[in-house]
Amino acid sequence: MPPVTTTLHYLEHEVAIAADPLATIAALASSRLHDDYVVYEGDGDWSYAGGVLAEVRLDRSGTRVRMPGKPLKETVLPWDGAPLRQVQSLLSGLPIADWRAYGWAAFELAYAKGGDLTAIGDQRLLHLIVPETEVRIANGSARVRSTDRETLERTAAVLSEVPAAARASSGAVNVRQSGAEEYQHAVALAVGEINGRKLQKVILSRIFLLGHDIDFVGTYIAGRRGNTPARSFLVRLDGVEVAGFSPEIVVSVNRDGRVVSQPLAGTRALTADPERNQQLRSELLTDAKEVFEHAISVRTSLDELEAVCRPGSMTVEEFMAVRERGSVQHLASRVAGLLADGRDAWDAFCAVFPAVTASGIPKDAAYASIRSHETAARGLYSGAVLKVDQDGSMDAALILRAVYRQEGATWLQAGAGIVGQSRPVREFEETCEKLDSVSRYLVTA
Which of 64, 162, 252, 277 has a Cα-to-Cα distance from 75 of 20 to 30 A? Predict the structure, then answer.
């Protein structure tokens, strides 16, 4: 006789909130209710996911789902070459009613998602949690869910007494003070590869190490006030921390199978001078290098999604709009379609991950260039923060414009899109303009 599986259900409570959502989210993250949590904001909705009811981890050995408790429940699927299908299978089998999972995917998942392990080490490629306690904030109300009544009540108490989000003193660091020579040399080598027809485009990044510790919640508050992101996120999961202000989504899929991707490529600074910004905007829209870089990115996004969408459903809903994102302005387009029969959100994610605007064209050649010219594995940088629902919907934000902490190191990271017309000096300056989206708002611990 098979074992009886008990389905877990959340207890729920609705709380009216008077504080602004940013202050509320900050209060939850600072409350010490949970050691591990994920904060995710998008389209006016804010979510806090605290504690681990279940978690899914993926690495080169395979995929495992764990449900902490007594006894510990664990299922392991050895590597079979289809890792994202394993993730989907384990999530769909969770004995949790109305679950929502939150977490991240590392850039190096790109190398392994098709089954090839030759370019990855032993690092985590994906880490998702279904939270013990979740708070969803929208329209002045917070929906609180928890599997533990005491934690539910403690969370509601935090929400009822939210102080105004402190305006901690943030300080800028000079991101132009180091790294120019090394980065410009890498760009020159990549331009040579492109002109040698090895590839069309590659995004090369550089790391800026911080010499002091950062208050991640304080930095998230300050940075969110100073940025205009498509999504924002604050993550602390098992030794990995990141706070950021994503300029674009990798992919969004709703419960009806509508798929949207939002490639941003082409960059100019955003300054305090409106007249100067307009000049830069006009330059951005007419610069041959920037327009070419953007157009081939949109073409690639279309090609990738066409493989998983219904024939004839693909459209470019927006083309070459200008979007302001913190310290920069970008050319932006929106590509949309409807999932084909038999396809799901994980198929869409697999098709477009990693974002073409953070990797290159063609992707395999870009990966080789990235591994050749960058000094370390990317990890979370240019990966994705994900929110995945039991109803089949998904929202995945590109991890850019962020501060990272892991294994005792704290750093910033940014890249630029390199094409045949790229000039190394300009590409280095572009990385600085992007780094300024975060470097201006760092709050010392």
Answer: 252
